[in-house]
Amino acid sequence: MTAPLIGLLIVIIIIISGFVYFNNYFSKPIQFHDIKIDTKASFKLNILKQISKKNGIKEWELEASSATLLKDEEKAVLLEVSVSFFTKDNKRVHLTSQKGILNTKTHDMTFSDNVKVAYETFFLVTDKLHYNKKEHIIYSNNSVRLEKTDSVIEADSMTTKLNENITILKGNVRGNFSENFDIK
């Protein structure tokens, strides 16, 4: 008879001890250590999606894995960027890069680190590329490499007028073309 009472007493003591322990554990304030504050940032987003339209026509769609809006500057620093620019006939020019800067006032952009552009069957690679919203152009003052199937064109700079479907290559333009190369 005493064994069940002793067992019951032990269970009650364990329950009360558990309650006191968990109550003290969860009532302590959480302490953070080694917190780093970005004094240049006024706001940070983990995911950014933005669409730009002009006169109801979509000009571009932007996605980034993060965006940091800088204090006292009209800039957002973007990481892991993906942008689709649209031509006047609604064809898509797709760009990816590791980094980007978006001017939050003008919506001009600069892309760097592994910049790749795809348009239909053409692929362009460069170190740095810019977008001018007012003129709706993309351009690079750095060397560019344009590839299509077995053909390659390289140049010192490039401008693509998105509304006119025209790409202009300048400076030391050179290339190798396959016999089936079609510029269209």
- The fraction of residues in strands falls at over 45%
So what's the CATH class? Mainly Beta
Instruction: Choose one word for the global shape.
Output: elongated
Q: How many structural units, i.e. domains?
A: 1
**Beginning-to-end CA distance, first to last residue:** 96 Å
The major beta sheet can be summarized as: 13 strands, antiparallel
Derived structural class: mainly beta
Order of helices and strands: HEEEEEEEEEEEEE
Gyration radius from CA atoms, angstroms: 29 Å
User: CATH superfamily name?
Assistant: Lipopolysaccharide (LPS) transport protein A like domain
Query: What's the average pLDDT?
Result: 83
Total number of beta strands:
13
CATH architecture descriptor: Sandwich
The CATH topology is given as: lipopolysaccharide transport protein A fold
What's the helical proportion of residues?
10-25%
- Weakly predicted, low-confidence segments: none
Helix count, per DSSP? 1
Description:
The protein is mainly β and 184 residues long. It has a single domain, classed as lipopolysaccharide transport protein A fold, CATH 2.60.450. Helices cover 14% and strands 54% of the residues. The protein has one helix spanning 2-27, and strands at residues 41-45, 48-54, 57-70, 75-86, 92-103, 109-119, 122-132, 137-140, 144-148, 151-155, 157-161, 166-170, 174-176. It is elongated, with a radius of gyration of 29 Å. The chain starts with a helix and ends in an 8-residue tail after the last strand.
